[in-house]
Write a structure and sequence with these properties.
The chain is an alpha/beta fold and 205 residues long. Helix content is 30%, strand content 25%. It has one domain (6-195): Rossmann fold. The protein has helices spanning 23-34, 57-67, 88-98, 156-161, 165-185, and strands spanning 6-17, 41-46, 73-76, 102-112, 119-128, 143-151. It is globular.
Length: 205
């Protein structure tokens, strides 16, 4: 379970309330400006678990994004096949095995200040999920998108578990739409359907 994401931004960051009408367009355009000039294999890693309402932002995003069928991106982390703390290393190995020189967009939930709840934050660089867990977890992503789903600072496991599903669903749909807008701007010659990787089994971790 990923309690809080520590951001490791190299340069730029943009944040907007998910209910702002222009949010998807503004953030997608900003992320497009961070993409590499040369073609890469684009991979979206949506981190989290459906066993905690607040932490379901990632797998919900992955599920909604898969339903939009992006043409240039592979999607890891859905409600059916989540990417979470206990299998993150395995999925990272799987991604680098399946994709040559992947460019990774990581998605995760986080907790923040009261006035930050409902904001979607996109940054260059990687994020480090599961900061509250004892074992170290690898940093993930060339770019990352986080959604502030609730307030941090006290009994964070309980806070995540008691987060309102409505805000998590709404934010996940907006993040999926944002990433899909990015996918629509990719015009590389090789076009293939997005795939959801489900090679790892929960009971094998």
């Amino acid at each position: 379970m990923n309690l809080k994401s520590h951001l490791n931004s190299k340069n730029d960051t943009i944040r907007m309330l998910h209910t702002e009408p222009t949010m998807t367009d503004v953030i997608s355009n900003k992320i497009i400006s961070w993409l590499p000039e040369k073609p890469r294999e684009y991979v979206v890693v949506c981190i989290g678990t459906d066993r905690s309402t607040g932490d379901a932002l990632g797998p919900l995003t992955g599920t909604y994004l898969d339903e939009l069928r992006p043409r240039h991106m592979s999607v890891y982390g859905t409600l059916q096949d989540p990417v979470h703390a206990t299998n993150l290393n395995d999925y990272i190995n799987l991604i680098y095995s399946n994709h040559q020189n992947p460019f990774i967009i990581a998605v995760d939930a986080c907790l923040g200040k009261t006035n930050s709840v409902g904001h979607i934050i996109a940054s260059e660089g990687s994020l480090k999920p599961g900061a509250a867990l004892k074992k170290p977890l690898p940093e993930v992503g060339d770019i990352h998108i986080t959604g502030v789903v609730n307030i941090s600072g006290f009994m964070e496991y309980s806070v995540l578990q008691n987060t309102r599903l409505s805000i998590v669903v709404s934010m996940a749909k907006k993040i999926a739409k944002t990433i899909n807008l990015i996918d629509q701007q990719l015009t590389y010659n090789q076009i293939s359907p997005a795939i959801v990787m489900s090679h790892l089994k929960e009971n094998s971790i």
